[in-house]
Design goal:
By secondary structure, the chain is α/β, with parallel strands linked by helices. It has one domain: NADP-dependent oxidoreductase domain (TIM Barrel, Alpha-Beta Barrel), CATH 3.20.20.100. β6, α5 and β7 form a beta-alpha-beta unit. α4 packs across α5, α6 packs parallel to α7 and α10 packs antiparallel against α13. It is globular and about 55 Å long.
């Protein structure tokens, strides 16, 4: 296992990070088996574990807490979690306000069974809350010792730049990391997010290296695809070959499979090695549900792609290109809220 320094924090983390979204009701509901997978990852050199309060409504954090109950294991792990999405019914149960983040961190500490969080990340931008408010409360939580460092997740480049500008102008602590989606089929962050992260010396944790299952090798062109079970049942829009755009993904997958065969590795190994190859990327989040999946993902831990392989990838999926749009990526309110794109009726009539 290779290790890298997480941005300017001085914290050394493994090049692969264990993502725990699949532990709990959404993926593996067996707590004992999930703990076993976490321990197996730690035993193989992973020292970085990432979770979030909203994964299975807090259950994932509880499982991680069980896995790290031994103080020796906890001391050896860089523990990351996230907050933003609503937790429960009613107003003021999510977002990036001081009121909510103060509560969210306390709740995460309780579920994780720990006194501190090594990296706390805001899960998405919050257009309702001034970024100064968010940075201020995160800085206070860091000063209190409840979190060691803080970062953002799935922020567009312009939001990252604004956050750094506000931090400098107001004398606040700044985001030290960013967690964006990145894969062979989703290279959009190469255009701006990764260069911005490098410019500000931020650590980068990438998620969805297998493009939510598209790069597992299970889904191939001109092969029968059951859209009623497994991942295709959850996301038929992503896999249905009759939907525009999916044909291009399947074409790229075929070429990437051929490249992996030439190199002598599997498609998932190629996918993970690709994400780890970018100089801006600190750690690649892998999200196994079972021990078998973990073993398969870690087979490529020592794989390093040479320039020839990376050049061939660039020919298949050009740099900065998204053939796949990860589910859950933040979209600006101006695109999701029609009222923000339309003048008031009275103003339009007067015009």
């Amino acid at each position: 296992m290779r290790y890298r320094v997480l941005g300017g924090t001085g914290i050394e983390v493994s090049a692969y990070c264990l993502g725990t979204m699949m532990f709990g009701a959404v993926g593996n509901p067996d707590h004992t088996d999930s703990v076993r997978v976490i321990h197996a990852a730690l035993d193989q050199g992973i020292n970085f574990v990432d979770t979030a309060d909203m994964y299975s409504a807090g259950e994932s954090e509880e499982i991680v807490g069980k896995a790290l109950r031994d103080p020796k294991r906890r001391d050896g792990v860089v523990l990351a979690t996230k907050g933003y999405f609503p937790m429960g019914e009613g107003p003021a149960r999510g977002g990036l306000s001081r009121r909510w983040l103060t509560r969210a961190v306390e709740d995460s500490l309780t579920r994780l069974g720990t006194d501190w969080i090594d990296l706390y990340q805001v899960h998405r931008p919050d257009h309702r809350t001034d970024i100064e408010e968010t940075l201020a409360v995160l800085g206070d939580l860091q000063a209190q010792g409840k979190i060691r460092a803080f970062g953002c997740s799935t922020f567009p480049a312009e939001e990252i730049v604004e956050a750094h500008a506000v931090a400098e102008r107001r004398g606040l602590r700044r985001f030290r990391t960013e967690q964006p989606p990145y894969s062979l089929l989703a290279r959009g962050i190469e255009a701006s997010v990764l260069p911005v992260a490098q410019r500000y010396g931020m650590g980068v944790l990438t998620w969805s290296p297998l493009a939510s299952g598209f790069l597992t090798g299970k889904y191939r062109k001109d092969r029968p695809m059951d859209l009623t079970s497994g991942r295709p049942a959850l996301h038929p829009h992503r896999f249905d070959p009759t939907i525009p755009g999916n044909a291009a993904k399947l074409d790229a997958v075929e070429q990437l499979v051929a490249l992996a065969e030439d190199i002598g590795c599997s498609l998932p190994e190629l996918a993970i090695a690709f994400a780890a190859a970018h100089p801006a990327v600190t750690s690649v989040i892998i999200g196994p549900r079972t021990g078998e999946q973990l073993e398969g993902l870690l087979k490529g831990a020592s794989l390093v792609l040479d320039d020839q392989a990376l050049d061939r990838i660039d020919e298949i999926v050009p740099p900065g290109t998204n053939l796949y749009q990860a589910d859950g990526v933040w979209r600006p309110p101006a695109l999701t809220n029609a009222t923000l794109r339309r003048r008031a009726l009275g103003e339009r009539a007067a015009g």
